[in-house]
Amino acid sequence: MQIRESAEMYLETILVLSKKGQVRAIDIARAMNFSRPSVSVTIHNLEKEKYLTIAEDQTITLNKTGLEIAERIYERHTVLSELLEKIGVPQDIATEDACKIEHDINPVTFDCIKKLLNKLD
């Protein structure tokens, strides 16, 4: 399944926020530093595409497909950040660079990185 990078970022943000409690559009806007109206438009588009559900109380929940994508991107982010930090990249830069790489890395390359990190531990 092909999904836009921006949609992946939204889904990942929702996943991270959901670990702390209920998620609403305003929480996403604050976390991503986006305007509430632009977040609202994107969230409704993601709902139409069946990646998430918006309840009557405006809480947002990832559907199965949305959750799978969010978990995949979040795993990439954490693994890539860890690798970059292990090779000496400062944490803030590692986090920023992992954000850029996580959407484009080939699954084969990512699997090799995970195997390498497992050997290093």
Largest sheet: 2 strands, antiparallel
Spatial shape: elongated
Spans where pLDDT lies below 50 across 5 or more residues: none
Q: In what range is the share of β-strand residues?
A: under 5%
Q: Return the structural class.
A: mainly alpha
Q: Give me the oligomer status.
A: single chain
**Number of strand elements:** 2
Nearest-angstrom radius of gyration? 15 Å
Helix content: 55-70%
Structural key phrases:
two-stranded antiparallel ribbon, 6 helices, 2 strands, 69% helix
Overview of this protein structure:
The protein has helices at residues 5-18, 25-32, 36-48, 64-86, 91-101, 107-120; strands at 52-54, 60-62. By secondary structure, the protein is mostly helical. The protein has a two-stranded antiparallel ribbon with strand order 1-2.
Could you give a quick summary of the protein structure above?
This protein is 69% helix and 5% strand. It is mainly α and 121 residues long. The protein has a two-stranded antiparallel sheet.
